[in-house]
Amino acid sequence: MRKLFLSVFIVVLAAATHSYGQKFIPKGTVIGGGAFTVDIGTSKSEFSGFTNEDSHTRIGFTPSASFFVIDDLAVGVGLGLETEKEKDKGSSGGENSFTQITFGPMVRYYFADGPFAEGSFGIGSRKSSFNSGGSTIESNFGLTTWQVGVGYSVRVSDTILLDPMIGYGSDKLDNKDSDQLDSYAGLFVQVGFTLILKTP
Predict the structure, then answer these.
(1) Global confidence as pTM
(2) pLDDT digits (tens, 9 = 90+) for 112-158
(3) Which of 24, 52, 129, 196 is deepest in the core (most CB within 10 A)?
(4) Which residue has the higher pLDDT, 129 or 4?
């Protein structure tokens, strides 16, 4: 799935560089923006006849700022902030929570009036805390993350764009207190926004 999505992303980006349509956002424009994520739900896992069910609440915000180095091509930086809580709905009643922060470069290319391709990379850290039976275990992780996606910017006004996007991303976690390595990857759907802060 990852290779398929990366192939589609590369094809779209290649098509973008060969598009000769009217420019959507001109060189010299400065933009800011971001995306909010709120996820409230339940997860269930089954293993060797045992079933475990957790409720979780996840909140994330990814502000960013970019500069258009040429018409329709923006290069910038993004900040990722996320917090999550999980609670075991079984008899143990254990609760796991984490907070994480990432920072890194991003690039976006508009290949028509609205459609765009975007990629980002981030480096940061995650702090995890597990509480059960009155005892707490804390862990610290190094974190690297990347995402690629395609979307469509809808003009709400002359200076505000709404940016729904679908993509593929990956997180890699390195426990600083042990040799534990974790990785997560998959598709994502998000709705962000763009503010045009300065035009040439």
Answers:
(1) 0.77
(2) 889 999 999 999 998 988 777 777 788 888 999 999 999 999 999 99
(3) 24
(4) 129
